[in-house]
Amino acid sequence: MVNASNVRIMTYNVLNYQDENEREDDYVLILDFVQPDLIIAQEIVGQSGYSNFKSDVLDIIDSDHWSGAPFTNQSAQQDIALYYRDDIFSFISTNVVYSAQSSGTRDVIEWVMLHSSSGIEFNIYGVHLKASSGTSNANERLQETTILRNYLNDHSSDSYFIVGGDFNIYSNNSSSEPAFDMLTASSDDNDGRLFDPIDRIGHWHNNSSYADVHTQSPRTSNFGGGATGGMDDRFDWLFVSQSLLDASSSMHYVDDTYWAFGNDGNHFNDAINDGNNNSVSDEIADALHDGSDHLPVYMDVWFDDLTYSDQGVMITEIMANPSSVSDSYGEWFEIMNMTDSTIDIHGWSIKDLQGDEHEILSDQMTIPVLPDEYFVLARNGDQTLNGGINVDYEYDGFSLSNTEDEVILQDISGAIVDEVNYSSGWPFSSGVSMEIHDLLVDNQLSENWFYSTMAYGNGDLGSPGIPFDGTLNIEESSIMPNGFSLISLYPNPFNPEITIHMDNREQGRMSIEIFDLSGHKVETLINTVFITGDHKVTWDASGNSSGMYFFKFTIGNTILIRKALFIK
After folding, report:
1. CA 306/CA 3 separation, integer angstroms
2. Do 313-451 and 5-303 fall under one CATH topology?
3. What does the domain layout of the chain look like in residue ranges?
4. Residues 258, 236: contact at Cβ < 8 Å?
5. What pLDDT is attached to residue 483?
6. What percent of the chain is modeled with pLDDT above 90?
7. What pLDDT shows up at residue 2?
8. Res. 364 pLDDT band, cuts 50 70 90
9. pTM for the whole structure
10. Which CATH class is domain 5-303?
11. Is the separation of the CB atoms in 95 and 87 below 8 Å?
């Protein structure tokens, strides 16, 4: 699928924030760099802290698009808040999960949110469990998480929810820290079971093997409150429901995006800004050190808000790995207009999921693809360099991987017209394109693609611009004689006459044959010796059926093919 909407979810314990003017520049620097779209914030102090974080931090970054979900002012001094970009999300409702077990601890807050462009509803839970080590504190965390797990188990098995916050859990040891198993272990009811998106589960407390996921503490010096033990605990998590780990889900975690921000794995039991930090700048490392005694944690989540367009254009052939020339010259793919109307692809785009993208544009402000036309788009339009391809459109900024990639065609509105997501197991190889043989099949399935067997140009196998089976029985030469120039076929489309305008600077024999789409020869227009000069030849198609026609020019040992549409 095309990368439609990746959003960034963050959890951040901002350390006893009420109106911390000396730290707000640190938060602005961090958040402006990360660019989160939704933030679960712990240790917000009351209504004033909630309001000030928005006005003095988030609104400084972007005053137009940040909103806060309705704030729940708990009896604990430090509260949990949710902030979100209101151009991406809408708030639906909130609820309190009464999990707190002692004075000064916090209940879990539930927010029901809507991803606006996809219409997908999901739940966010803000958590800040009982702090500190010791058996009594661990048991209190178990009671809190038992209440939370039972609450989450009321969800359906396909629900989307994220549970983020400061869990204060020291390890996954089921005896000394049973709260972790309560959240993540399998039980009779697994609808509320939580999962670590990166599956880095183990005894992480004071263990250098988990240095890359530790979140507390980024400081070793004592100032401004908070813990000072250096990076040795993974207290801050973003857990997800099972559905978010399924790549086929309409909302799912994006692989390799989970990060304890600023943790380069090289600061075990040390301050995050001590010496060099290989993952962020010194300025960011200092901000993380000064802003809080926790690192923020974020991940990206994908929402399926894709729209599709039934334009009647299909991707029918892909040459990902040419051998007669380099990939940078010889890559191409083919589309086919399956309708009975000309389709203008000016303003459309081609892209993949890795950031390659090209907008299809023409100085003439139109790029018509005629009915039944096989239309070739390539990285290089020069037949003397590209392996002998007759190219209809030359693009840049987009390349095809030799192992796996995507070809995504979008119309001018951004709707997906067609897409092919291929992998190394699909039927193509060095110098061999893959092609569709039946225009009515699903081209998303590898079993509907085949190895090309026809030779073109310099000898690679493929059928660029013509049907896969070579029913036209013509092969175009890669190099035209210097003394011949085909100026135009006009008008195109035509009814019923079309004029062929040529410039011949060397006397020689030429034939012009006309074929229909099935490859049957309709007429030999000329077969004679042409003298030098400017020539025009007219073909009257009266008596023939409307549709696409191929004009085969044979000049000596060289063949040139052009297409034109006859419309009655």
Report:
1. 9
2. no
3. 5-303, 313-451, 484-566
4. no
5. 59
6. 73
7. 39
8. confident
9. 0.66
10. alpha beta
11. no
Question: Residue 215, SS3?
Answer: coil
Closest CA to 565 of 488, 511, 495: 495
Distance CA 447, CA 280 (A): 45
pLDDT tens for residues 245-283?
998 899 999 999 999 999 999 999 999 999 999 999 999
Distance CA 31, CA 34 (A): 5
CATH for 313-451, among 2.60.40, 1.10.3470, 3.40.50, 2.40.160?
2.60.40
Question: How are beta strands 374-378 and 393-394 bridged, if at all?
Answer: parallel
Mean of per-residue pLDDT scores for the chain? 92
- Is residue 178 reached through a cis peptide bond, with omega within 30 degrees of 0 on the bond before it? no
The total number of residues written for the chain in this structure: 568
pLDDT, tens digit, 9 for 90 and up, residues 62-88: 999 999 999 999 988 899 999 999 999
Distance CA 91, CA 80 (A): 16
Sheet holding 547-555, edge to edge: 521-530, 508-516, 547-555, 558-566
* Higher pLDDT pick, 465 / 139: 139
- Tell me whether the omega of the peptide bond preceding residue 496 falls within 30 degrees of 0, making it cis: yes
**CATH number given to 484-566:** 2.60.40.3080
CB 240 within 8 A of CB 197: yes
DSSP string for 73-138 = --SSSSEEEEEEETTTEEEEEEEEE----STT---EEEEEEEETTTTEEEEEEEEEPPPS-SHHHH
Residue type, 170: Y
